[in-house]
Design goal:
The chain is of the alpha/beta class. About 70% of the residues lie in helices and about 5% in strands. It starts with a helix and ends with a helix.
Length: about 575
């Protein structure tokens, strides 16, 4: 699965590079097409601004005219309102009396009127009131001689006839109070309202009906006085209102013209906003396209050199994936069976197994290598820095140590495995013990409990039986915690624990019951490894600066490989979001 994931990374990386290359030409074409549109839009915007400036001047001039007419109309309206208020104030003085008289008429009934009519010789007060009513209605009195023989006016026969009219009261209510003839109202004031006997409180004593009629006459007198004053003002008000209506008509026309101009100006401004927005979007789009082109070109120039290597890696990984069954089969066989043997014997076994796989039709790599199948270049380089010899035999031994299911027992007469393990696990708080140490079990317990690595060195051909649970990894659960029994003690077991065993014996003979519990690995030095170590010693003596340079180069090479892997991981994560760049 890891192999397939790694292959997919390179494939996706190559696809992204090809996508970037194709997008650059597309974006350049888009950029060429956007530039003329931006120029046209900018030109249209400038022309529209000029039109708006001209229309704005027209609108401002029209606004001034409308403001002047509006001020004039407001002044006329204020004058008209002042006249109207004055008229209403004057009328307010007379209207209460008029309303009271009408209310008094409303209280009269036809029986009251009939009672007055039936009087054959009415009291003087009744005659006085009826005379005034007849005069107000413009009725002529009868002429008859008095006691001295002089002809005088007699209004009673006329009054009786008037009282006989069924619509008499309605005629009083509907009396045209605004058009009372001057001679009539003058006579009323001379002969009646100025007469002390013409008082509703006095008339009330002789006739309740005549009391209401008396109030009506007096109210008309008061109203007429006010109306005479108000009439000229009403004419002025009518003239002012006519002027105001004319001005308001002209003002409305100009306001309508202004509205048309303003609406047109608002429409132009909306068009300008749309053009400016379009221009801004085009500018942003062009700028973004330029940025994308720069990004894509940086990506192509930065990763262009990797394209050939990635293509080769894809081909290699594809071949490895196709042959993974046979490669893993041979790798598992090496780890399980070939650890105790020499390099020559391992190679003979691998050749035989290779031919067997070919005969059975099992796919495998023609250039099979354990380090290629199970090894990680960065990890192997770290091992070599820690002291593992650089020959393939030693590298395969290191892979067997880290890949086997059983704890490794390394045949290490030259001590190179011992040195390698100590350097490799130094940062992880490695504990070194020997079976000869009296308290080695206490140290081993601590390592099992806290997950520290442990190196059991210089063992013989037999192992302490107390180590059997550790070698067989005999763990059990107690109270939900994974535990192991070591002697009489039950201790917690950490999955981080690692055990390494080394022996100095050149050709030890381990019984089968020991061999099945550990992974035996032959760590005897090879000629190539010995040559490399001797060369290092000679160079350190003769040319110490070259040996130091070599060590620095080894460290830098390991560091560069780690950085290369980190950079590839970073590039992979960036490629996941590459479409967002475009």
């Amino acid at each position: 699965m890891e192999l397939l994931t790694l292959k997919d990374r390179y494939v996706i990386g190559l696809e992204k590079l090809e996508f970037s290359e194709s997008q650059v030409s597309v974006m350049k074409q888009d950029l060429q097409e956007l530039q003329p549109i931006l120029i046209t839009t900018s030109k249209e915007t400038v022309e529209l601004i000029k039109v708006i400036e001209k229309e704005t001047e027209i609108a401002e001039a029209k606004k001034k005219l409308v403001a002047a007419d509006e001020a004039e109309a407001n002044a006329a309206a204020s004058a008209s309102q002042s006249i109207k208020d004055e008229c209403e104030a004057k009328l307010a003085e007379a209207m209460p009396a008029m309303h009271a008289a009408i209310s008094a008429l409303d209280t009269l009934k036809q029986n009251d009127i009939s009672l007055v009519k039936s009087m054959s010789n009415p009291p003087a007060g009744v005659k006085l009131v009826m005379e005034a009513v007849c005069i107000m209605k413009g009725l002529k009195a009868d002429k008859k001689p008095n006691e001295s023989g002089k002809m005088v006016e007699d209004f009673w026969p006329v009054a009786k006839k008037m009282l006989g009219d069924m619509k008499f009261l309605d005629s009083l209510r509907e009396y045209d109070k605004d058009s009372i003839p001057g001679p009539i109202i003058n006579r009323i004031r001379r002969d009646y309202t100025s007469n002390p006997e013409f008082d509703p409180s006095i008339i009330k004593n002789v006739s309740s009906a005549c009391e209401g009629l008396c109030k009506w006459v007096r109210a008309l007198d008061i109203y007429d006085k006010v109306a005479k004053v108000v009439a000229p003002k009403r004419k002025s008000l009518e003239g002012a209102m006519a002027v105001l209506d004319d001005q308001m008509s002209k003002l409305n026309e100009k306001q309508q013209e202004l509205k048309i101009i303003t609406d047109k100006l608002n429409g132009l401004n909306d068009d300008l906003d749309a053009k400016q927005t379009e221009k801004k979007n085009l500018e942003d789009n062009i700028e973004l396209t330029k940025v994308k082109i720069v990004r894509a070109e940086k990506l192509i120039s930065g990763l262009g050199g990797e394209k050939e290597r990635w293509t080769q890696n894809v081909a290699t990984l594809s071949d490895t994936y196709d042959n993974i069954v046979g490669d893993v089969l041979l790798s598992a066989s090496v780890v399980a069976y070939l650890g105790p043997f020499t390099l020559a014997y391992r190679q003979d076994c691998l050749k035989e197994w290779y031919h067997m796989c070919k005969e059975k039709g099992i796919p495998l790599n023609d250039n099979f290598s354990l380090s290629t199948t199970l090894g990680e270049p960065v990890t192997i380089r770290d091992w070599q820095i820690a002291g593992l010899p650089v020959d393939s035999f030693s590298i395969d031994n290191g892979i067997i140590v880290t890949s086997a299911n059983r704890w490794p027992l390394m045949i290490d007469p030259q001590g190179q495995a011992n040195k390698w393990v100590k350097n490799m696990e130094k940062a992880n708080k490695l504990e070194v013990i020997k079976l000869s140490n009296p308290n080695y079990t206490r140290t081993l317990e601590n390592c099992l409990q806290f997950g520290n690595p442990c190196l059991l060195e210089n063992i013989g051909e037999e192992l302490d039986p107390i180590l059997e649970p550790v070698l067989l990894r005999q763990t059990f659960k107690e109270a939900g915690v994974e535990c192991m029994r070591l002697g009489d003690q039950i201790i917690e077991y950490s999955r981080e624990f690692r055990l390494y065993i080394t022996t100095r014996l050149r050709n030890p003979h381990y019984l089968p019951e020991v061999s099945v519990k550990v992974t035996l690995i032959n760590f005897m030095i090879t000629p190539m490894g010995l040559e490399d170590q001797l060369l290092g010693i000679v160079a350190a003596k003769e040319k110490p600066e070259l040996e130091e340079k070599k060590n620095q180069l080894i460290l830098e090479s390991a560091k560069n490989k780690r950085q290369l892997k980190e950079i590839e991981d970073k590039i992979w994560r960036s490629c996941q979001h590459l479409r967002e760049i475009f």
